[in-house]
Amino acid sequence: EYQKEFPDIPIGYSGHESGISISVAAVALGAKVIERHITLDKDAKGSDHEASLVHSELAELVRSIRLVERALGSGIKQMLPCEKACHDKLGKSVVAKVKIPKGTVLTLDMLAVKVAEPMGVPAEDIFQLVGKTVMEEVEEDESLLSEVVDSYGKKAKS
């Protein structure tokens, strides 16, 4: 909520709880600054020591925050090289939910997405197919191949 109210200001979290979980969760929710107290002895006199972190907890907090930051990524959706083999084998494509006769104009209710052989039009392109005409009959549960859909992937002339 603070980030919505103050979009140009980094938002932080000042933790006074036991452990590190809530501070790590704050980073996952967008906190850019974390403030935690540290202590040499949780049993020392004073109210902050019990909720403060000892050296090993501080080290674990930093490791956990860095892990969460990496897991959150950049926000840009892209396939990593290590994901390509799995995607090529298990990537989803568009299939016919029903038998589609030659010359039919595609509607969304005729289409489904699943792992299919052969791979056809990528699942993320399903909405680009709506309104296009199939140039060959497509059987139920069969992959929609790009060459079967008129004007798929072609830009409209202006």
UniProtKB/TrEMBL annotation:
Location of the protein in the cell: Secreted
Pfam family, one: NeuB
Keywords (A to Z) from UniProt: Antifreeze protein, Secreted
Major localisation: secreted
Residues annotated as domain AFP-like: 93-152
Matching Gene3D superfamilies: Aldolase class I, Antifreeze-like/N-acetylneuraminic acid synthase C-terminal domain
Matching InterPro entries: AFP_Neu5c_C_sf (IPR036732), Aldolase_TIM (IPR013785), Antifreeze_III (IPR006013), PseI-like (IPR051690), PseI/NeuA/B-like_N (IPR013132), SAF (IPR013974), SAF_AFP_Neu5Ac (IPR006190)
PANTHER family hit by this protein: N-ACETYLNEURAMINATE SYNTHASE, SIALIC ACID SYNTHASE
Biological function: Lowers the blood freezing point. Contributes to protect fish blood from freezing at subzero sea water temperatures. Binds to nascent ice crystals and prevents further growth.
Family label: Belongs to the type-III AFP family.
Protein name: Ice-structuring protein
Organism: Ameca splendens
